[in-house]
Design brief:
Number of strands: 15
Strand order of the largest sheet: 3-6-8-9-10-11
Shape: globular
Radius of gyration: 25 Å
Order of helices and strands: HHEEHEEEEEEHEEEEEEE
Strand content: 25-35%
Distance between the termini: 93 Å
């Protein structure tokens, strides 16, 4: 009587034991310590991509839509061109800010007074901050970053803009409270802390909201 060859079964059993042992070892590994702000800033200097820092770990930044880019462009034109003669400057999302709790953000736009030194890399006293909503970032922008802005003493106003319609929400510091107001198509965005008022519709110029695409003028 021939003995059945159980080598394959033994190999399978060994494989299962090895995987099980690895799994148990993995479950017993200590959790990695949160990254410090200083360590993040040093680490980010060596990266080609941009990262935010939530106080624990780096978060990679992703690209946006054409509408998002168009609103950013309009912000730079409408807000960036107005504070002439004032000690304030508008910056886009190439410059990072530090908010309360040692967190690093790259807002879609912000204003700081006075302007940042030429070699500055981190702004710690922004006055007005702008974010453009997307499906992926809506909760972070409306909840997490809103709380961060409210807790950062220098921030007087936080403007959150929709990219699917002319509208948004503005939060402002009023006598120690953090108060929100809805913005609509006929709203005027008033920012007395930087001496600017503008019609909200200016920020949506060139965007065809009906089709969800940026509007291109026909040439000829």
């Amino acid at each position: 009587m021939r003995r059945k060859d159980n080598s394959a079964a033994r190999q399978n059993r060994t494989y299962v034991i090895e995987i099980g042992s690895w799994y148990k070892r993995g479950m017993n590994l200590p959790l990695r310590k949160p990254m410090t702000l200083a360590a993040f800033l040093e680490w980010e200097n060596g990266q080609t991509a941009r990262y935010e820092f939530d106080g624990v770990r780096p978060i990679a930044m992703t690209g946006g839509t054409a509408a998002h880019a168009a609103i950013q462009r309009n912000l730079a034109i409408a807000v960036g061109g107005r504070p002439r003669g004032r000690p304030c400057q508008f910056y886009g999302n190439d410059l990072k800010i530090e908010v309360r709790g040692g967190k690093i953000r790259y807002p879609d736009g912000f204003v700081v007074c006075p302007a940042v030194p030429r070699d500055g890399k981190v702004v710690r006293d922004p006055v007005v901050i702008f974010e453009i909503l997307s499906e992926a970032t809506a909760r972070t922008d409306l909840v997490t970053k809103n709380h961060e802005c409210a807790a950062t003493v220098s921030v007087r106003r936080y403007v959150v803009l929709s990219q699917s319609e002319i509208g948004g929400t503005v939060f402002e510091r009023v006598e120690g409270d953090w108060v929100g107001h809805l913005l609509g198509a006929d709203s005027v965005l008033r920012m007395p802390e930087i001496g600017i008022e503008l019609a909200l519709v200016e920020l949506y110029e060139g965007i065809d909201l009906a089709s969800g695409e940026e509007h291109h003028e026909a040439s000829g």
